[in-house]
Amino acid sequence: MKIALVARHASAPARQSDEYAGDQAAHVTGLGKALASQGHHVVIYARKDAPGLPDRETLATRLTVRYITAGPPATVPADQLPRHVAEIGRYLAARWKKDTPDIVHAHHWTSGLAALLAAREQPVPIVQSFGSLGLAEQRHGVPGPRDHTRVRMEACIARTVTAVLAQTSDEVSDLASLGIGGTRVRIVPCGVETSRFAPDGPAAKRQADLRLLHVGSLAEHQGLDKLLMIMPDVPAAELVIVGGPDPDGLDSDIACKRLGKFAAALGVADRVTFTGHVTSKSLPALLRSADIFVSGASYEPYGAAAISAMACGKPVVANAVGAYADAVIDGTTGLLLPPGHPDLLLKRLRELLATPMKLTGFGIAAADRARSRYSWERIADETAAAYQRCLTDRWGQPAGPRTLASARGTAATAEQRWAA
Predict the structure, then answer these.
(1) pLDDT confidence of 406, banded at 50, 70, 90?
(2) CATH at residue 315
(3) Stated pTM of the model
């Protein structure tokens, strides 16, 4: 197949104002590589968000990135991305007239709008992945603008495209609440590069007998205060918090300073380390150095870090939300807890730390589950099967005349709204 992946970014770290952009960029790149390795011809389309990016770049055999000039060559806040949708759509339409893809897979709602704009000129079946829905972000207090237009447009896009690939069971429920469901929605989660994220390999040094590790932003919905609250009762453990700004920006980061003061008030500051943003290259060794990946987050649409930890043979202790609820088998690969109960988190965590054989068994099972369920090879297989189902008109809403007419209406509405 000739596959077009339309994305916000081809490579970008997650930022406080756009928390899940980095996860989505990594997902698109990983998916593109996996599909290309299976013989498909893949082109990733992404806006130029940094100076010096070429118009075209080859990432691997049969995998190309085309960078689109639309707006400034710099990171643009999420609420400003819609201003560039029309320009991106025109670029895609011109490219697809010259080289029409068999299937288009849009990632993020603004990418979906751009793809629908292009489909007005060059009809193609479109598969949509939202990754993180505006409805869910608002409900869970994820930092960012409270744009009700985004919620409405996501619902409109989901009704218009040929199919929707959700990341988690929670996302399926949220889509159903917007009136989108049935056979047009299928779950295909994020993947993990099991050749890099594996139990065997170098591990980072640690300072205590036990290490708890969290990877994510420093935002309040990540529940880091709840993790800090349990530290006085696990005196043999250290807590490493990975994420947030680059290391040289931690001292001026408001969230980091708030959490640091809280750790000091609890008397555990000497056992809590904030690393800041860690590169993908350094992350496997850091994950291997931990005993448990732990999270107090109330919302997690991707779960990439936890799945990577599982692939490194580490059990996960987290709230039963989002990707955690799907990835972790409670009592086998880790522990799932009801959100908002730090006392229960402490109790279950202490029980697990007190039984080394169970901890080891959970880690073995976690690595096995990550390899069998979340390898990029399997994710690419499931994604390609979804594409093929669209192409053979066996999905619930094939890309027929009614769908394409609806696509034109949705794209026209978006173009009028943000043309200025």
Answers:
(1) low
(2) 3.40.50.2000
(3) 0.91
